[in-house]
Amino acid sequence: MRKVILAIDEGTTNVKSLLLDPLGKVIGKGSVPLSISHPSVGLVEQDPLEIIEKMKESIALAVGSIAESVQIEAIAISNQRESVLLWERSTGRPLTQVISWQCRRSESLCEILRQDDVFSRYVQQSTGLTLDPMFPATKVSMALQQIPDGHIRAEKGDICIGTINTWMVWNMTNNVFVTDASNASRTQLYNIGKQVWDDTVLERLGIPNAALPPVVASSHIVGLTREFGVLQQGIPVASQIGDSHAALFGHGGYKTGVVKATYGTGSSVMAAMPTLPSIRNEISTTIAWEDSTLFYGLEGNITHTGSAIDWTRRMLGVESMDAMCQLAAQADIDHSVFFVPALSGLGAPYWDLDATGIFCGLKSATERADLARAAFESVLFQVADVFYMIAEELPEAIECLCVDGGPTLNNWLMQAQCRFTWCSYS
Prior knowledge:
Layout: E1 2-10, E2 14-20, E3 26-33, E4 45-46, H1 48-64, E5 70-79, E6 84-88, E7 98-99, H2 107-114, H3 117-127, H4 136-146, H5 150-155, E8 159-163, H6 164-172, E9 179-180, H7 181-184, E10 190-191, E11 196-197, H8 199-205, E12 215-216, E13 219-224, E14 236-242, H9 243-250, E15 258-263, E16 267-273, E17 284-290, E18 294-302, H10 306-316, H11 321-329, E19 338-340, E20 358-360, H12 368-393, E21 400-404, H13 411-425
Helix pairs in contact: 10-12, 11-12, 12-13
């Protein structure tokens, strides 16, 4: 029986499962889409129970995609990072929907906290993250207030707070409650220098430590599976890591001079460092991963890239992304239109909650193709902004920009990214 590793990537829009042989070759795969709901303006949620069922489906598809029988030696998890949910420890029943990283429900709380300069600076220095609704801390604080006796139950340990990797492990095992350093560092509740949940931040936001999971290394056997879909019991769950961190590691980010850009609904531009870098407002400082050693990361989180292109596509009435690409190709290369895709504020390096989207440079000669091209170019400009910011902080020169994600299949987009960033930097 062929021995394989099962890798599960739980993203914002899909759950993907891969079977890898001992040489790292993918021999089986399965992918299942996830639904996203928008209950009201600014709110973005997903169904936690659907995620578990879609995990089972994607695993079954991967196992069923090959003719031979396999023996799964271990399971590795990567996941969308800042999305969070709360559930009941005794029953595993979700107490909230998955509150997406895209959700802006805590904008007002973030704005109030930002007015306290001392606390705002402390959060930045402790967690490496700017106060922004993308990160779970403020959304968890609000969720506890909305759950009957939420704070009391959380203090007793009756409530579990976890990012998606924690929820996945809980359901795949016999209720193992744990997270890894990379995901913990994205909650805005974790002191990345001391590597502990930060009591000062927790106290200010009213989040009890008892409701948070223990933090372990990204490469660490946390437990064994129960029967889970087609999976048998007793398979080690051997690693968990945030998806952007996993991408950086896969690109060889543990070597100096490597920066990676992940293109998706939003985008992440990241570089790893073996020591804690200086902490600044424009970009995030995070824990890239922890195995035998701990690597920190410099990262710029861009809120709208792929989603900005898709929004423009829908506004223009274009049926498909392929058609959108064809339309953009028809634009005059010297067109004057620019798009600022602040559809729910701006992320790195601006962190402007009040920013709104705008097309500028419109003329009587402007065509739909110019708007389409401007949408694609908005991605390039945002990635370049963060790239240059990271370049200022790295002690060594950048040797390569590695890219991943669906939009990288667009040759024009990648060549244009090279011109906007790499050629100028070199």
